[in-house]
Queue: 2 jobs
Job 1
Amino acid sequence: MANKNVKNYWKRNLTYLVILLSIWFLCSYGAGILFKDSLNTLKIGGFKLGFWFAQQGSIYIFCIIIFVYVWLMNKLDKEYDVDEK
Amino acid sequence: MDVKMWTYIIVGITFAFYIGIAIWTRAGSTKEFYVAGGGVSPLANGMATAADWMSAASFISMAGLISFMGYDGSVYLMGWTGGYVLLALLLAPYLRKFGKFTVPDFIGDRYYSNTARTVAVICALIVSFTYVAGQMRGVGVVFSRFLEVSIETGVVIGMIIVLFYAVLGGMKGITYTQVAQYCVLIFAYMVPAIFISLALTGNVIPQIGFGGTVSDGSGMYLLDKLDGLNKELGFDAYTEGSKSTIDVFAITFALMAGTAGLPHVIVRFFTVPKVKDARKSAGYALLFIAILYTTAPAVAAFARTNLINTVSNKEYVNMPEWFKKWETTKLIKFEDKNGDGKIQYVKDPTTNELTVDNDIMVLANPEIANLPNWVIALVAAGGLAAALSTAAGLLLVISTSISHDLLKKQLKPNISEKGELLAARIAAASAVIVAGYFGIDPPGFVAAVVALAFGLAAASFFPAIIMGIFYKRMNMQGAVAGMIVGIILMIYYMLKFKFGVFDGGKEAVEGLKNGLWFGISPEGFGSVAMLANFIVAIVVSSFTSPPPAHVQQIVENIRVPRGAGKAHSH
């Protein structure tokens, strides 16, 4: 496998990480902590929005992030021919 | 049938089941003992990881804590789940590709020195022992309440069971019992939650009932009602909380990084066959954990509403039976300060007459909600499953650290396969006994330290592993200096602000609160110590020589999935 190929593979992986970890940060530290007071002025059902992110929403989003990463990486592994046989 | 009979039956069946699995899956080689032979399916590993991870604290204490803390309790919810994102994206796949048995194995090889390996072993032992003592204590508490034996007897029974399947089956036995324990604990958690949600809000799904209206005809949202009740009694509004933003931020971060750095969780990802499976099983693990973790805050809010409605300003003589029962365990205390025969439950400590221990909210919930006896017994079995599964995972880390990382890798490199396996079993057995001793006779510091195990893991392992994968230039000197600075700083802060060691003991702790660095409590200080670890490591490594070529090759190699064999020792 060419060296350059591996470098590109790693770069793509890092790009995915930066994007997904930004979402991870925004939904928990952002919506659940830093901006919760302003989000709390909005409501969905009986939940204040900031409170909902802190106690429910962020957890659902965490699950989605991991499965999206699994899907992206499986595709990427194949594309760069570094997947496991 | 009464609760006690039901408890004997349900706990008896689950225990027989765990022992049966242990006999069926006993380990024949070190590879089976350390990593279950490396052939666990991602789904099974996800379940096992969930049980491994969710301890007595998650099952018994967490909803109670949130119930009293309201919004502030979110730190546990986000902190203990968000760590899995870090695990899945930053650690698990690469450590799986690396393909050894333990976390100190990785640290020792990546930083090419036995010094680094030894520092890692010591950190692993500190983290695991503090954590396991709390689990054995949890087992004792559940037994003493539901089977009316002494806490000591309860701990001994728990020790025998764990001894049996951890020593006999190693990782292989533990994995499959954890799968069974997950099923028991999640069922035991959900059944009462669903019943209570239905009764209080008319909605079967607790996560939705949580945001729904109370079914007393008022049409009020549950959370609005709870905010009102809390404020009426002088507490902070349930959805607002009282911790400073920086503290909430720091605690959440310390718990996340700590979760990702806990050795007993990381080793679970060595048991799957492929890198791909390591990623996927982290996803399954979080999914299984999320079922409990999104239910817990709902249970917390229901329990709080029920509690206030039942006790506030009510005659003491009219209290239901569960109230009296828990009073005898001293987990509920009532003192009629103004002598009116009614219970005043308020924030102001001078007029408050009721103290309720966090731990009873989940355990007493089925009784508070008048659920049938078998549900109460089920909760006892669930609490035991949660405590035992975590204890077993931790004991395995302790025994592996000793037989593999110290004995095989350092003291006696040519020990035979059989000899190593025997050593692992002896180490596991000794660890159970030490843990049991801590459980029966906890030195004052144990209970408080459990919550800090995360800070310790965040301050020591997390940076060393992350930089080992993502920063090729990181060398032995940097990593070792970072780990030592991180863990010592964390221990110092803990001793100073949690135990008042330098200022005359526990009584001094309250007075020291104004001196907290950046206003961060000891539980959140792991974030700061972790940052210190990163900075020290990077500075030191930039003044010392880069790692040798073969180590840089290792880093290159773990970054691509292809060529991952099953975990091996050489």
Job 2
Amino acid sequence: MRLPKPPQPWPRDPPPGPFRDAFWKSPLRGAWLTSLLGSALLPLITICAVTGFLSHLAYHPELGDNSVFGQRGILGIDFYWIGYPANPAWIYAFTQGTHIATGLAAIPILIAKLWSVMPRLFEWPPLRSPAHSIERLSLLMLVGGSIFVFLSGLWNIQNWYPWPFNFVASHYFGAIIFLAGLGFHLVVKLPVALREFRSRGLVRPLRASLAETEPERHQPGSLAPADPAPATISRRGLIATIAAGSGLAALMGIGQSLGGPLRDLALLGPRGRGNSGDGTNDFPVNKTFAISGIEQAATGPGWRVRLLGGSGLELSREQLLAMPQTSASLPIACVEGWSSTQEWSGVRLADLASAVGLDSPGQTLVESLQLEGSFRQATLSSGQAADSRTILALKVNGADLSADHGFPARVVAPAVPGLHCTKWVGSISFNQGGGDEPA
Amino acid sequence: MNLRERYGAGPLHLISSIAALSIAGYAVFEMSGQSAPIGFAIWFVAAALLHDIFAFPVYSLFGLLAGKASARLDTAAGAVNYVRVPAILSALVGFIWFPLILGLSSERYEGASGHSSDVFIGRWLLLSAILFGLSGLAYAVSLRRSAGAALSDDSAPARRETGLRGSNRRRTAPVGFATAPSSADADVRSEATNPPPDPE
């Protein structure tokens, strides 16, 4: 007697439309093309992720109120002992410029890769085994994560926040979900890609002209089309188009980062322009005086910087200018991926600490005259504050700071994110919380 | 029943899937303590669908229309790319910077940078014009070149690779996916539509 077959969860034949192999016509789709796109994305995403986490470290979230989203590290473990180097001074401008440029460059390739695997969304049966179901769930992490992280970053650099949550926290934890999905995806798919490259060659299919372009061989369940349309673009044509898009996107990031005449190349970059017509102060800002909420009078002749700690002191701008002046050529490097190196001059933080009778500044809290905003204050590590290039700047390129650049005085420091180079400084508190944190 | 039959894959797959889900679980836990965790979850899932149910149908439709228009105009194979490539690049730049181009963040952007975002739509149109202009120039050059080739090469009057309407006769061995040796006497027409069997 034959046993009845167990009930199948899905009808054996796929529903019509995209669930059928014959629906997908592009002759270029296939495992080799997807492998190539994935291989192009992997280094870009790796660099983008590493520089992203480095940026998180550069903010010293373990100090004072620096962290934007609470104090917990990975599983409550403090991993900030890694620290962030202060040399060379442009290191943060470099890592963060790289973060934004690689992120921009990855977007066209990511779109192409999503296009290339489109038939997979409709594979039939939709769930075959526990392993297959977990793979599909991990695609939510991978696809949702990648699009979420790229769009949130992209819209943050354009000051557009159509969502209700904190950008920093969602970009950071969204990235962790995405990277977890990516790690699993690599375990599953890297062998497939390597097999494709072994059998097809890494670039051999790119040698074919349009007339020579053949579809990849279709097998049941493969990405290659069962019923391909004639090719209308060669593989190298497609790859060259994606590469051009990638280069065009990256150029706008790189132009904003390298500055000088290259800044004009960032045609659509948010900081493809300087700040004003005034030559000495003509470089970008992240916040204008107009929206700082500071009264004009507060930055006038009555302004004093309050030094807290040691014997304490209040100094006017004239008194600061009468102290020994230090010059430093330092970049203002924004987390949004633009930077600009200028010649600053003012008084060393170390000298201000001496003025109140301290040997060294120690961990230093700098507060702005602003009453609100996450970055109205920043805590510098003792290493950052004691660096001989860390100054309370009064002038830039030989002229007084403009209002937008932080007049009467602002902090500049080597390898410190621009948001921690506090503008419109109101007070500096030395020796905040011991000296046991990393330099 | 072993693991492979029961689970559907080997132990490395199982271990790495558990690791990945655990790490993601940690991040979800952290986000649950942040502001608007539900909003985050909605945006995250919406992001996963954004390409597949919104972007893909839109750009596929444009692709199909371009193909139809190209067929109606009876252009040579590949000529459509002189429109398609600059259109893709222009759309890409437009997509990347649309919040600035459309002025969606104009107030915030002006407060942050001190500049108006009004310039971006003009810059995008300018860049698009340059891209289409360069592509048109390339097309004109290819037309001229193939017309020249047709005049000087009487033995192959139909061979026009990119310019005027011409055949897609292959003159060299296929590269990459069709690995069978091509015979000079073979009917290249039928070979083009029926790829030779893969020797594997």
